[in-house]
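[retry 2/3] Helix-turn-helix domain-containing protein: previous attempt timed out, resubmitting with same input.
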Amino acid sequence: MTEMKILLSDDQMGIISTQLSDLITTEIEKIKTQENLQHRYMNKKQTCNYLQVSNNTLDGWIKDGLPLIQIHGSNRFDRIAIDQWLASLAK
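[retry 2/3] Helix-turn-helix domain-containing protein: success.
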């Protein structure tokens, strides 16, 4: 089998590296968004991902009134209620 080598300048390698990184980041964000949009009711981890906050921040927001549904010791968060709660805080 014949080997082929492609020589690129440092600038070209930098451009390709940046484009590849941007493409991968964009695709990961699309997957995250699709995962979060599949379910209306989310567990705590999904809610943290949806809101892009840490677990501690979410706990603080719950104390501040973030809507929470508790069923037999299981917590769920309604995506629509969360969006409405956040909108109500906007000034």
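[retry 2/3] Helix-turn-helix domain-containing protein: Helices lie at 10-37, 44-51, 55-63, 79-89.
[retry 2/3] clearing retry counter.
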